[in-house]
Design goal:
Number of helices: 12
Number of strands: 0
Order of helices and strands: HHHHHHHHHHHH
Shape: elongated
Largest sheet: none
Radius of gyration: 19 Å
C-alpha cells in the first residue's frame, strides 16, 4: 500500500501546509523542506505523497475541482437546465471569491512566466476539467432536446467566462469582492443569456 493510501490524513495536512507556504512566500520561493516543516512531517513523507511542488499545487487545484464537479453532477440530476446552470454558477461564485482561492490564483499568475509548467498543470487539473464537464452537460441537454446547443465546448467556455468576468477587478485589488446582490446579478444574467440563446 502506498503512502497516500496508507495515511490520507497526512496527505491533507501536507496540502494545507503547502497552501500556507505558497501564500506566504510564493511558489518559486517555497521549498519542500518548508512545506514538510509546516506540515510537521518529514520531507520524505512529503515526497511519498507528492513528487514535486508542481504536483502539490496541482493536487490543491484538483481537490477544489473535484468538490465542484461533484456538486455540479448533483445539480445536473434536477433535470431542469435553468436551475442546474444557476446552481453551477452559484458554486463557481462561491469558490472563486473564496479569499484563499483568490490569493492562490494571484500566486499562480505571478509565477507562471517563470514556471510555465505550473500554468499547464493548473489548467489541466482545474479549468479544463470544469469546461469538459459543462461541455458534456450541454451535449447531453442537446440530445435530450431541453436545450439547442450547436457548439457545446464554446458554449461551456462562454458560460464560464460570463460567470467569472467580475473576478479580475477583485484579483487586482481594484474593487472588493462583489456583494451577494452583485453576484446574483451576474448569475441571473449569465443563465438568462444561455437559456435564451439555446432555447430549443
Amino acid at each position: 500500500m502506498n503512502a497516500a493510501a496508507d495515511n490520507p490524513g497526512k496527505r491533507e495536512m501536507i496540502l494545507e501546509a503547502a497552501k500556507k507556504v505558497f501564500l506566504d512566500v510564493g511558489f518559486g520561493a517555497a521549498s519542500m523542506d518548508a512545506i514538510a516543516e509546516a506540515a510537521k512531517v518529514s520531507k520524505q513523507t512529503v515526497y511519498n505523497h507528492f513528487g514535486s511542488k508542481e504536483e502539490l499545487f496541482a493536487a490543491m487545484v484538483r481537490e477544489t475541482c473535484d468538490t465542484m464537479t461533484l456538486a455540479f453532477a448533483e445539480a445536473a440530476k434536477d433535470g431542469n437546465p435553468e436551475k442546474t446552470l444557476r446552481s453551477i454558477a452559484q458554486r463557481f461564485m462561491d469558490t472563486m471569491f473564496n479569499e484563499d482561492k483568490l490569493a492562490l490564483h494571484r500566486t499562480l499568475m505571478a509565477e507562471v512566466s517563470r514556471f510555465p509548467e505550473l500554468g499547464r498543470s493548473f489548467y489541466q487539473s482545474g479549468p479544463a476539467v470544469i469546461r469538459r464537464f459543462l461541455a458534456d452537460y450541454f451535449k447531453d441537454q442537446n440530445l435530450r432536446g431541453t436545450l439547442k446547443v450547436d457548439n457545446p465546448q464554446v458554449t461551456a467556455e462562454q458560460f464560464i467566462s460570463m460567470v467569472t468576468s467580475c473576478r479580475l477587478r477583485s484579483e487586482l485589488g481594484v474593487e472588493p469582492i462583489p456583494s451577494a446582490e452583485m453576484r446574483e446579478q451576474y448569475i441571473n444574467n449569465a443563465v438568462s443569456l444561455i437559456m435564451r440563446a439555446c432555447a430549443p
